[in-house]
């Protein structure tokens, strides 16, 4: 086993671990929740050194079952979430990926087509992600439809944003200089035409100043934001709404109705926060980000509690990604119904292609 430094899609340094010939690497968020596990407890270089010092002890561990990852947790308890996750991704790969786990279902892709917010430097939408959730039968067809719609969106965007220069967010979504409702108008038309569900990651924390939700063209109080989001759900038939309010407003989330309300910054893949959200009926869906949880065992605990309480799980990439495809394997291995992994860009495609390969391997599709 050895660890080294590589660059992610945002050209930030991150950690890659090679475990007995298999690689794992960690992503990094931009619109992070306050309560997430820290990527690194020391500097990245120090964490890489510390992990490399554990080489012999890690290689000696007998890791046969998924639950044996507890031994990794114990050995790396002083290290950050990214360091442990990169190592655990490599171990997952070494042990056969999804085949090591007990699942076998292919998730539906939640594709980020247009966006802005914290994921784009410059004038863009307030909402972070406008999401496509297709209803086709296979992952192959769903991901191709997402790519087609992403491509076809260029034309209506150019009609509205005369200075559009094909700029994209960190996740490869178009980043036009338009307001949220202009984008919703365009997106809902495409969704109706192609029978696709429409979703939003509002990531409201990023434009909450402690008193107001500060939009490019208006300022809303908490109550006004709740009414506004509920109106948008009705008007645009929104199937999925992530983080409609700031990250501490569990009660406010419960006032968003008639959609799948999803907690990302609210829950940060943390069991205690999920328990609170279930108690207060804040959400119907939860984002699972491995490095937010800081270990695969903790991620699984959150998933199991969500399943027990009929909360839908969505495994997710981060805005700063690597070519690692472990989230695709976790989605299939744990039967997670949705995966949010972007549409365009080699780091996003790495996850999509892996799922198409697995879908073929499991006999759900035949590609000549
Ligand atoms: C998100 O908010 O869903 C997201 C993927 O963003 P980040 O990785 O920047 O937290
Ligand atoms: Mg989010």
Describe the protein.
With 368 residues, this protein is α/β, with parallel strands linked by helices. The chain has two domains: 2-99; 108-361, Alpha-Beta Barrel (TIM Barrel), CATH 3.20.20.120. It is 39% helix and 17% strand. The chain has helices spanning 44-53, 55-60, 69-75, 81-94, 139-152, 154-160, 180-194, 222-236, 250-253, 271-279, 290-293, 296-308, 326-333, 346-361; strands at residues 2-7, 13-19, 22-25, 108-115, 129-134, 196-201, 213-214, 219-220, 238-242, 260-263, 285-288, 312-316, 338-340. The strands form three sheets. An eight-stranded mixed β-barrel has the order 4-5-6-9-10-11-12-13, surrounded by five helices. Strand 7 (213-214) and strand 8 form a beta hairpin. Helix 13 (326-333) runs parallel beside helix 14 (346-361). The mean pLDDT is 97. Bound molecules: phosphoenolpyruvate and magnesium ion. The site of phosphoenolpyruvate has 11 residues, from loops. The site of magnesium ion has 6 residues, from loops.
Number of helices: 14
The CATH first-level class of the largest domain comes to Alpha Beta
How many domains, in number, for the residues?
2
CATH architecture of the largest domain: Alpha-Beta Barrel
| CATH fold category name of the largest domain | TIM Barrel
Which regions are unreliable across 5 or more consecutive residues at pLDDT < 50? Answer: none
CATH superfamily of the largest domain: Enolase-like C-terminal domain
């Amino acid at each position: 086993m050895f660890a080294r430094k590589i660059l992610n899609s945002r050209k930030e340094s991150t950690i890659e671990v090679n475990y007995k010939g298999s690689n794992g690497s960690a992503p990094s968020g931009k619109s992070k929740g306050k309560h997430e596990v820290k990527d690194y407890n020391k500097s990245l270089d120090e964490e890489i050194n510390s992990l490399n010092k554990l080489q012999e002890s890690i290689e000696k561990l007998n890791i046969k079952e998924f639950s044996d990852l507890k031994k990794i947790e114990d050995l790396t308890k002083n290290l950050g979430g990214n360091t442990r996750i990169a190592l655990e991704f490599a171990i997952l790969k070494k042990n056969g990926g999804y085949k090591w786990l007990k699942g076998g279902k292919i998730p539906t892709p939640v594709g980020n087509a247009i966006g802005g917010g914290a994921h784009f430097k410059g004038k863009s939408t307030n909402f972070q992600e406008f999401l496509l959730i297709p209803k086709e039968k296979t992952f192959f067809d769903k991901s191709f439809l997402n790519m087609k719609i992403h491509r076809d969106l260029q034309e209506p965007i150019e009609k509205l944003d005369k200075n559009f220069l094909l700029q994209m967010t960190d996740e490869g979504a178009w980043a036009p200089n338009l307001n949220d409702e202009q984008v919703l108008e365009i997106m809902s038309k495409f969704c109706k035409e192609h029978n696709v569900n429409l979703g939003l990651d509002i990531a409201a924390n990023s434009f909450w100043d402690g008193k107001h939700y500060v939009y490019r063209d208006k300022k809303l109080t908490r109550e006004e934001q709740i009414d506004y989001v509920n109106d948008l759900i009705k008007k645009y038939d929104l199937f999925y709404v992530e983080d409609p309010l700031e990250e501490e407003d569990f009660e406010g989330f419960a006032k968003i109705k008639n959609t799948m309300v999803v907690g990302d910054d609210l829950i940060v893949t943390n069991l205690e926060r999920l328990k609170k959200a279930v108690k207060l009926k804040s959400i119907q869906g939860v984002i699972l980000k491995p490095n937010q949880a800081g270990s695969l065992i903790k991620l699984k605990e959150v998933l199991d509690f969500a399943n027990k309480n009929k909360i839908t799980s969505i495994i997710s990439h981060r805005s700063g990604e690597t070519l690692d495809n472990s989230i695709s394997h976790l989605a299939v291995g744990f039967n997670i119904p949705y995966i949010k992994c972007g549409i365009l860009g080699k780091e996003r495609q790495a996850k999509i292609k892996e799922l198409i390969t697995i879908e073929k391997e499991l006999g759900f599709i035949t590609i000549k």
